[in-house]
Amino acid sequence: MASRKTTQPKRDTEDKYSILLPTYNERENLPLIVWLLVKYLGESGFNYEIIVIDDGSPDGTLEVAEQLQKIYGGDKILLRPREKKLGLGTAYIHGMKHATGNFIIIMDADLSHHPKFIPEFIQKQKEGNYDVVSGTRYRGDGGVYGWDLRRKLISRGANFLTQVLLRPGASDLTGSFRLYKKSALESLVERCVSKGYVFQMEMIVRARQLNFTIGEVPISFVDRVYGESKLGGNEIVSFAKGLLMLFATT
Amino acid sequence: MTKLMQWLFGASLLGGLWALVSFDLLDLNLPHTYREVAWPMPLYLLVSFGCFSLATVGYRVATFNDCDAAAKELQEQIREAREDLRRRGLKM
Question: Per its UniProt entry, what is the enzyme's top EC class, as one word (chain A) (predicted)?
Fold first, then answer.
């Protein structure tokens, strides 16, 4: 151990970061997100691995992922596909089983989350030895791109209501760009039952229940460059249901 | 205690106090002005909270950052990434 430390004096050689990328029909975006991850994590000299969890995409995402594995190496890109589309929570469980890092980073593969923030997440985590570091669109330099007034209003309104009802101790509950200590994510995932937006919210609420510490980093959220992003009546209704469920049970 | 219980607890505490003063339940012979002030208090509180909420949400919508620079940077990096990946032999 001592000899390893002397070869890399600047880095904590024990820390390794596993990035979980759940994908479904992301053949356009996957190479780009992987390229950006390699760029920012490789340049900073962090020890990392990217775990692609493809849920049987019909567009050939997995085939592109295999090409990427050849380019960047099997130690950096791990493929852990599943047969068909299953929930996000189970994707995290599935990915974590194969993760060798002591930290897990979860993010969307659709380029709305930029890997340039990951070094900031890591820095923040070290500052306060946080159990969870959450990206936030609502604080500091954080923000969004590609949202109209209606979308902003719904987002801010829902966020305010949630803050009032749940007092969760974090400003962005529905975002899914976060860094977790592996042990923390393990105990959170097995407690969370919700789907969609509510799943991310439940993760933070349960984290507070378990007395995990939460750090925040402002992020810019650039809405899907490719493909359609939707926020319809269904999403709003299921969000409201989830909020009430958490209000009554936590 | 769940959040729901906390809210119910808080609401019943405030409601009890309000009823105590408004209807002088303990026969304390409170001055009439006390009762006159207390009686419409729940409505005042509700309206003020509503105004506060509207103002807060409105302000936050108005000051929601538009990350134009981030979007532009991403577009440039996408071009760069495509070129680099093609050079490395990726068939998109």
Answer: transferase
